[in-house]
Each structure stands twice: as structure tokens, then as C-alpha cells.
Design a protein that fits this description.
Chain B: Pfam families: Ald_Xan_dh_C (PF01315), MoCoBD_1 (PF02738), MoCoBD_2 (PF20256). The structure holds 2 protein chains of 2 kinds. Chain A is α/β, with parallel strands linked by helices. Helices cover 28% and strands 16% of the residues of chain A. A 7-stranded mixed sheet of chain B has the order 3-6-1-14-11-12-13, sandwiched between helices. In chain B, a hairpin with a 5-residue loop joins strand 16 and strand 17. Classes of the chains: A alpha/beta, B alpha+beta.
Chain lengths: 181, 822
């Protein structure tokens, strides 16, 4: 990780890029980051290619599948539809930020593992980040809200049943078991 | 961690079933030895690991974001490729101008067909081979249309690669695509497979003179007499529509030439790394050892990544030419239009039966839309042939299949690979027959099911390998009974009548579909089991995982076979340097073939370890036990560590091949209860249940996840997904806003019941289950919708049953002109 003082520098792109360049500063998983980015660089590519945070996956590049979801100032966003320059000054959180090296899995990650809410693992980081935002709310979101949030993600492997179970487990852990209706 | 995590509904159902039927269940933490159907040579001895619902060892790295998919590998200096693709379905290329593109910033190279004239086109040779007995007995027509790496003079489908650009980034490469000028002269187009076979249809390959890519016919008994003498004959046309497998990770390949030896390392998300290695070596003119293919983490395959594509050859070629790593990752639009499609078939099927519903004969004449290529030859068409009869006794059979080339994306196997299509035709036909006879559809099925006492059962057909098709094991009546119980049929019929009597807008219907699945395709798979220098055990396999959890389930098999703890075993799948030969993870075969190879290699390694320890300690092997990472002489307590034995020069490594003697049959019965809103056409699944049999289950959590995922893909095809083309050959559903992969909101919980009839064809007693879940839902849902709308006279002949299509069926049946809801 970062050695010395000052923000971590993103890998300098040696590209003969025809668009304008911008100096952006942001926070990624709690760490200050400075990067020179071209206007059209996507946030997903900044994270994956310049910062080496490849846990954020790109599945459709048009904002439907949700695999690229990261938290920007606590809110789930599609990093494939967000320009890197839009993240200037923002606090960005990716799946790598949920549990540090040597730390046990976080509660949402653990729920997906324990409920077998994942198979190939490609869509998983997106689901996990959206679920992390749900568990971070002030109050337990109602069933309709949860269903609505999950419908922003595609999974081709699981049939969703175990993903729903994982999200329930994570919410139960954050807010206590759901009261019977 | 316990089995209840697979879902309380599943567990509950299994337990109920255990009490009712007494069938041994696999949900228990440990699986006991089977009491039925032992293979000759004996069932694999019980160990502590097989049958346990162990949590997956794969998960932790993936959950931390430490997975390594192809696009995650960024070697220093990696260039990126992009492809210019044809905007026309059929056109002559009269000019390509690439100079402007070559001069664009960051562009390193541009290739067109003229630049790679010496490179052989792609032929998926392993898939196009016709097994000798099939050739002898059926003499099928199987034509091969080599797939040019880049379109040479003519484009045959919209999306076909015309030029490849390699640049310093994907952004810059895509910029350069815009600067390539191509002049096209559009030519006539055919997209419908029936029309493609008519005289005078536009040709995909002019030298052929027609578009007939494949034809095969087979018969059993005396079908003419059966139909002539039958009390009832029904005849229908059913169509399986076009699908895209649509893994969430699109295709990707990266190739890097070695700095010193020039050896090519290729990271691909292929399902068949050894086939890709051999193909690349052949095309690039190198030895197979000079190519190293690694399937790293793969984000779903479902068959789409099971064939060799032109991009998978061109990217390694570019890396070799330029001497630097080159990466290509497909975008979603490319995946939907230029990766393989699947499923499109038109069946003209007829059933002949006695008045009591006993089946006398089946006729089916069906056409497969191959698109603009012959990717996999007989695989899908003949797989449909051998899965048409399913679990039913049909004494007289007449089947013909033809495949047509069209100006659409080439097709290849997709989860089920011809089975869902055949089951759709057969199970729909059975429901039409039941209605004709005035029988409850489930009763008609029960009357014709092959009983356990008739097994092993020969259908009279030849299987995919050309051997007499034989069902090895199963209990099909029990599968159907279990499905019927889960649907609570009497209650459904009562509620259905009440809704009809009340003239409700909402109608409910019930639909069944029963299927068999030939699993464990040969010819072989190999496994290498080795003690590493630290005393741990590594299993290397030719079968990569695309999410099936091989690192967990194969380790369970190995731990039992060797007698070491599960945690001491690591599994590597799909790295051609770790095991020299392999086929791949396709056709519901990995658990059967690689699983049994693992078992064999593990047993032999155990013997080798004990022999080495016996020599080392100077005691008889019979007095030794394997205990963790050491061998112990139990009379004296003296131990020899595995790491120590390796360090002293004992070769503790074994490679085993497993050759399946035949296909082992998994099966299932699906049932759904649907609610159809006749005002809007919306179909809702009230009940979605499946009884399945996949033999001995190695890991219930993983197995049930596979079934549930397959069912979800079946539901997707039944209600939402269709890859559509306009009459001009333009793909219409080219984004995820148009090609409707269902979300969590559309896929209900699955009720799962499981019976276990161990395979008689392998020592582990396992059967394949990767594809099974996807086979029944389309037929079951179509049957249920037709059942719900029977009072209106609706007949369902194809999917997906979108609101618009359901409203259209109602309008057609009732002769009303109400506008469609959109």
C-alpha cells in the first residue's frame, strides 16, 4: 500500500489520450488518492486499471447488470456510468474496503458465504455493496425497498433465492431479527 | 454451517419425502454407502467428506475482491484489442481502408483478412467429429463451414469481426474503429430456418448450393403401423426460441509471449482450456507445449464459453506478432450479437396413443437454426434427438432433424444443449394429447413412465457416442409423484374451477414437465493427485470451474479417496501446465468424469503413500493409517510425515484417467402453478417446484445451487428472454434493456425435492447436474399457461410468454380485436 506521506498516486497513464486531462483527488476505501485522469475515463476503469482495485467488476457497461456498483459518499452508484472526474472529492468505497487484509470477512460478505449466495462471484461485489448500503441505513429498510434495491442487479448463476437469504441474514445482523408481520 | 442454509423449504421438503418414501436422502451431513445399483467393482467406500454441505473454499477471495478474472490481469505494457464488426447481416465487402486508423493516437496495429491470409479459419474439430458407430448406422450429413478469423470478402451475420485494432487502451482502440472505412454491398438475407431450407433462399455459403448444414434420421419399431392403428393421433408445431447464454462476465482473452522463451501464456475464460491450447498451437504453428492456457476465475459460462472463437485465436496471434501482452474483453453488445446464440428449433411432432393414453408412437421432424456457422455439428441437434423420448416408453419412433444456415449469429450449446428444446416439444405434445383424451396430464405421464423394474432400459436409439442408448438408473414415477405432491394438484383444480365459475380476470393453471438428462460425456478426463513439498495435496484437473465450486466438491472427493483432511487438499482446474490432457467443463460432465478421475488418482496416491511409508518405516503397509499430514504405524505410534517422505525422494504423485463407459442418466420432474392475468397477460409463478435425481450428491449446498440456477434460466427463457432479429437480419435485442435477463423480482423461491438413485456407471455413483435445472421450466410453464387459459381455447406453441404474447394468444383464440397491451 501507500508508503511515505501524501496521497497515493494512481498509476500514471502513458496514453496519447486526445481528451483533456484533469487532476482529481478523492478518497478510496479510506485512503486519499490523487490521479490525473482523462475526461472520459470511467470511475470503474480508474478503480480497476489505475488503482488495481479489480474487485469491482464490469458486466454490461450500460448500467443494467449492477456488477460495477460501488458506494460514493455512501450511496450505491454504477461505476461504469460514472466518470472518474465526477468522483472528485468523493468518498468511494469498493468491495476491497469491506474487510482489511488479515481481518475476518465483514457481516455482509459473511452472509453471502454462509448462505451460498454466490457461485461464479462475478456479480457478487455489486450485490455486496448494495447490501452494505442497506445495512448502513438508520433504520431497517422494508421488504419492498430491499426487493427494489436488489432488482438493480443481475445474477446469472444462483436463481437469487440464496442471495435474498444472504441479504436477510445481513439485515438481521444489523437491525436484529425482523418482527413478524 | 449446516444444511439448513440451503433454504428451509428445501430441507423441509426433503425430510418429508424421506418419511414418505424411504428413499435415502443426501441432505444429511454424511452420505452412507448406497444399497442400490453398485457399479461392478464396487461402490466407492464411504469417507467423511462426500455428502457434506461444506461451505465453499472459493468464496473468501471472491468476497474480498481478490478474484482473478481475465480482465483483472494487467501485465506491464499490455495493449488492448477491439473489433470492427459488420453492421450488415449479409454483404459483400468491396473496400477496406485502414490507413487513417493506423495513424490514430496510441494505435499499434490494425489487421484485416488480407493481413492474416495465412492463418487457418476456426473449425471446432472435436465438436464436429461424428462418432464412428453413428456414421455407420445413421450416415448423417454433417457439413463444416470453417469460420474465417476476419471476414474475407463477405460478411454473413451482423456482428461478424471485420478488422482488429490493437492500441494502448480500449478507449483508443475503439476510437480507431471509427476511422476504418468499409464499403459494403448488401446482399439478400434469410433469418428463418424453415425459409432457409426452401429452394431459392439466399445462400450463406454459395459453394454449397443450399443451406442444409446437417441432416440425420432415425427410427425404432414400425412407426407407420403404430400411427395407422392408433386410437388417437395429435400433431403440432412447437418452436423453441433463440436465447443467449449471457454470463455476467463476457468473453475475455489475454495473451502474453514469454520474454525469454517466447512461450505463449493465454488467460482465457474458456470452458475447454486444453482444446484451446491444441487449437492455438495448430493455428499458430507451434508445439502444444509452447502454449500455456489458463482458465482463471470465470464469471459463468453456461456453454457459451465452451467453444473456440475467432477472437480467442486473433488475440494470441496479435500478442505474438507484437511481442507484448494483448487483452480483449468483449462488451455486452458484442456478447449479445457476436458470441454464440442457442436454442432456436422448430418441431413438427406427432404422438399416437391408445384410448387409455398408452403411447404407441412418436414422429418428429425438426429444424435447428445454426446461424451463420457450423460451430458444433451434431451436438445440439442429436442431443435433442436422444432426449425427445425422455422417461417414457415409446415403442415406435421416427425422428428426422435438419439444421439450416441463416444470416444470424452462429449457435452452440447453451445449458441444456438441445434438451430443453426437445422436452418443450415432447411435454407440450403430451399435454395436447391429454386434452384430446380428456385425461389429467399427470395421469397420462404416469401411465407411460418407465418403471424402476424396467431399468436398465434401452430406447432403441443410439446415444451421442453411437452406442445403444440405455437408461442406467432412476425412479421416474417417484419423481413425478413428488412433483405432484408439491403442486397439491386437487387444491389447484378446485381453485381453478372456482375462478372460472366466477369469470375472474385471473386464471390459474398447472403444468408438469419430466425429463431425463444423459450426463458424463466422454471420452475421458484426467486428474493428477500430488503431495506437495509442504505435505499438502494438490489435485490438478482439466476441467475449469465457472462457478460450480469444483475447488470444494473435488476436494471432498479427494479427501475421502486419499484419507486426508478436506483442508489439506487444494484443487487447480483448467491450467494446461498442471495436467497434460483434458476435455473441459461442458455437457454436465465435470463431476462424473473429473470427479471419478480424482477418485481414482486419490485411491492410487493413497496406496503410493502407504507403500512409501511402509518402506521408510520398515513395517507392513497394513499396519499403517493416514492421519492428517502423516502416516502412523498404529502399533508403535511411529510416524512419517508426508512432507518428509517427499523430501526423502518418494514420488507421491499419481495421474488417473476416467473413461465413462456410457452416459449416466439424471432426471427430474418440474411443476409450476401459474396465475395469468387475462387483462394484462402477465404470468406469475405461484408455485415453482422440482423433484430431481442426480445420483449421489457430493455437496448438497453446491448441488442445490446448481439446480436453482438452472431453473432460473429456464424461467427466464419461458417468460422473458428472447434474442430477436428483424427480417433484414438486424439483431433487435442488443442491450440488457431489450434482452431481458430476469432480476430477483422475477425469480421466485424454488421448492426442491430430491431422490437419489446412484449411478451404476461410476464408482462414486454421481451424475451430472449442471444443466438439469434448465430443462423442464419452459415446457412446464407453457403447459401451465395453456392449462390456465384452456377455457378460451388457447394453444401455446412458443415462448417467451410475455404479457404481449399472452394477450395475443387470447385475442387469437377468442376472436376479439382488443389491442395488444405493450
Amino acid at each position: 500500500m501507500n508508503v511515505g506521506t501524501g496521497p497515493r498516486r494512481a498509476q500514471q497513464p502513458p496514453l496519447p489520450e486526445p481528451t483533456a486531462w484533469h487532476e482529481v483527488s478523492l478518497t478510496v476505501n479510506g485512503e486519499p488518492v490523487a490521479a490525473q485522469v482523462e475526461s472520459r475515463l470511467l470511475l470503474s476503469d480508474l478503480l480497476r486499471q489505475r488503482l488495481g482495485l479489480t474487485g469491482t467488476h464490469v458486466g454490461c457497461e450500460h448500467g443494467v447488470c449492477g456488477a460495477c456498483t460501488v458506494l460514493m459518499d455512501g450511496v450505491p452508484v454504477r461505476s461504469c456510468l460514472t466518470l472518474a472526474v465526477q468522483a472528485a472529492g468523493a468518498d468511494v468505497r469498493t468491495v476491497e474496503g469491506l474487510a482489511g487484509d488479515g481481518e475476518p470477512l465483514g457481516p455482509v460478505q459473511r452472509a453471502f458465504h454462509e448462505q451460498h449466495g454466490m457461485q461464479c462471484g462475478f456479480c457478487t461485489p455489486g450485490f455486496v455493496m448494495t447490501c452494505t448500503a442497506l445495512t448502513g441505513r438508520a433504520e431497517r429498510p422494508d421488504e419492498e425497498t430491499v426487493a427494489d434495491e436488489l432488482s438493480g442487479h443481475l445474477c446469472r448463476c444462483t436463481g437469487y433465492q440464496n442471495i435474498r437469504a444472504a441479504v436477510r441474514q445481513a439485515l438481521d445482523e444489523s437491525f436484529g431479527p425482523q418482527e413478524a408481520e | 454451517m449446516n444444511t439448513s442454509q440451503t433454504g428451509t423449504r428445501q430441507t423441509g421438503t426433503r425430510q418429508t419425502g424421506t418419511r414418505q418414501t424411504g428413499t435415502r436422502q443426501t441432505g444429511a451431513p454424511r452420505t452412507g454407502a448406497s444399497d442400490t445399483g453398485a457399479a461392478s467393482g464396487g461402490r466407492a467406500a464411504d469417507g467423511p467428506w462426500i455428502g457434506r454441505a461444506l461451505p465453499r473454499v472459493e468464496d473468501e477471495r471472491l468476497l474480498r475482491g481478490h478474484g482473478r478474472y481475465v480482465d483483472d490481469i494487467r501485465l506491464p505494457g499490455t495493449l488492448e484489442a477491439a473489433f470492427l464488426r459488420s453492421p450488415h447481416a449479409h454483404a459483400r465487402i468491396t473496400r477496406i481502408e485502414t490507413d487513417a486508423a493506423r495513424a490514430m493516437p496510441g494505435v499499434r496495429a490494425v489487421w484485416t483478412a488480407a493481413d492474416i491470409a495465412g492463418l487457418a479459419p476456426v473449425v471446432n474439430e472435436a465438436e464436429l467429429r461424428v462418432p464412428e458407430p453413428l456414421r455407420r448406422e445413421l450416415d448423417p450429413l454433417v457439413r463444416s463451414l470453417p469460420h474465417p478469423l476476419l471476414a474475407d470478402g463477405r460478411v454473413r451475420f451482423s456482428g461478424q469481426p471485420v478488422a482488429m485494432v490493437v492500441a494502448e487502451s480500449r478507449y483508443l482502440a475503439e476510437d480507431a474503429l471509427e476511422a476504418i472505412e468499409v464499403d459494403y454491398t448488401p446482399l439478400p438475407v434469410v433469418v428463418d430456418p424453415d425459409e432457409a431450407l426452401l429452394p431459392g433462399a439466399p445462400l450463406i455459403e454459395e459453394s454449397w448450393g443450399d443451406n442444409l448444414a446437417l441432416e440425420a434420421a432415425t427410427s425404432v419399431g414400425d412407426p407407420d403401423a403404430a400411427f395407422a392403428g392408433a386410437a388417437v393421433v395429435i400433431e403440432e408445431e412447437f418452436r423453441a426460441h433463440r436465447h443467449v447464454a449471457s454470463p455476467i462476465e463476457t468473453r475475455a482473452v489475454q495473451a502474453a509471449p514469454g520474454a525469454y522463451d517466447g512461450r505463449l501464456t493465454v488467460w482465457s475464460n474458456t470452458q475447454t482450456p486444453h482444446r484451446l491450447r491444441d487449437h492455438l498451437a495448430q493455428t499458430l504453428g507451434t508445439a502444444a507445449e509452447a502454449v500455456h492456457v489458463v482458465a482463471v476465475d470465470v464469471g459463468g459460462g453456461f456453454g457459451q464459453k465452451g467453444i473456440i472463437y475467432v477472437e480467442e485465436v486473433l488475440v494470441p496471434y496479435a500478442a505474438r506478432q507484437l511481442g507484448v501482452p494483448v487483452l480483449w474483453r468483449e462488451d455486452r453488445n458484442e456478447n449479445l450479437t457476436a458470441a454464440s446464440h442457442a436454442r432456436e428449433q422448430v418441431h413438427r411432432i406427432a404422438l399416437a396413443a391408445d384410448a387409455d393414453g398408452t403411447l404407441r408412437g412418436l414422429r418428429d421432424d425438426f429444424v435447428v437454426n445454426f446461424g451463420a456457422g457450423t460451430f458444433t455439428g451434431l451436438v445440439v441437434p442429436y442431443n435433442s434427438v436422444v432426449h425427445l423420448l425422455g422417461p417414457y416408453r415409446v415403442p415406435n419412433v421416427d425422428i428426422r432433424v435438419r439444421a439450416a444456415l441463416t444470416h444470424t449469429a452462429p449457435t452452440s450449446p447453451y445449458r441444456g444443449a438441445g434438451r430443453p428444446e426437445a422436452v418443450f416439444a415432447m411435454e407440450r405434445a403430451l399435454d395436447r394429447l391429454a386434452r384430446e383424451l380428456g385425461m389429467e396430464p399427470v395421469a397420462l405421464r404416469a401411465r407411460n413412465l418407465i418403471t424402476p423394474g424396467e431399468l436398465p432400459y434401452r430406447t432403441g436409439l443410439l446415444d451421442r457416442s453411437g452406442n445403444p442408448q440405455e437408461y442406467d438408473s432412476g425412479d421416474f414415477p417417484q419423481l413425478l409423484r413428488r412433483a405432484e405432491e408439491m403442486a397439491d394438484l386437487p387444491a389447484v383444480r378446485e381453485r381453478q374451477a372456482a375462478l372460472a365459475a366466477a369469470g375472474s380476470d385471473h386464471r390459474i393453471g398447472v403444468g408438469f414437465a419430466v425429463y431425463l438428462e444423459a450426463t458424463g460425456l466422454g471420452p475421458f478426463e484426467s486428474a493428477r493427485a500430488s503431495v506437495l513439498s509442504d505435505g499438502r495435496v494438490r489435485i490438478a484437473l482439466g476441467t475449469p470451474s465457472q462457478g460450480q465450486g469444483h475447488r470444494t466438491s473435488m476436494a471432498q472427493i479427494a479427501a475421502d479417496a486419499i484419507g486426508v483432511p478436506f483442508s489439506a487438499v487444494e484443487v487447480v482446474g483448467g491450467d494446461t501446465d498442471t495436467v497434460p490432457y483434458g476435455v473441459g467443463t461442458i455437457a454436465s460432465r465435470a463431476l462424473v468424469t473429473a470427479g471419478n478421475a480424482t477418485h481414482l488418482a486419490g485411491r492410487r496416491l493413497r496406496e503410493r503413500i502407504l507403500a512409501a511409508a511402509s518402506a521408510r518405516l520398515g513395517v507392513p503397509a497394513t499396519e499403517l493409517t493416514l492421519d492428517g499430514d502423516a502416516v502412523e504405524h498404529h502399533p508403535t505410534g511411529v510416524r512419517a510425515g508426508l512432507a518428509q517422505l517427499v523430501a526423502e525422494g518418494h514420488e507421491l504423485s499419481e495421474t488417473a484417467h476416467f473413461h465413462p463407459p456410457g452416459f449416466t442418466f439424471a432426471g427430474g420432474a418440474g411443476v409450476v402453478v401459474v396465475d395469468v392475468d387475462t387483462a394484462t397477460g402477465e404470468v406469475t409463478l405461484d408455485t415453482c417446484a422440482m423433484a430431481h435425481d442426480a445420483g449421489r450428491i457430493v455437496n448438497p449446498v453446491i448441488a442445490h445451487g446448481q439446480i436453482a440456477g438452472g431453473v432460473a434460466q429456464g424461467i427466464a427463457g419461458a417468460l422473458y428472454e428472447e434474442m430477436r432479429y428483424g427480417p433484414d437480419g438486424q439483431p433487435v435485442t442488443t442491450t440488457y434493456m431489450d434482452y431481458l435477463v430476469p432480476t430477483s423480482a422475477e425469480v421466485p423461491d424454488l421448492e426442491l425435492a430430491e431422490i437419489t438413485t446412484p449411478s451404476t456407471l461410476n464408482a462414486l455413483g454421481v451424475k451430472g447436474l449442471g444443466e438439469g435445472g434448465a430443462i423442464a421450466p419452459q415446457a412446464a410453464i407453457a403447459n401451465a399457461v395453456e392449462d390456465a387459459l384452456a377455457p378460451f381455447g388457447v394453444v401455446v406453441r412458443r415462448g417467451p410468454l410475455t404479457p404481449d404474447r399472452v394477450r395475443g394468444l387470447l385475442r387469437e383464440a377468442t376472436g376479439t380485436t382488443a389491442p395488444a397491451t405493450v
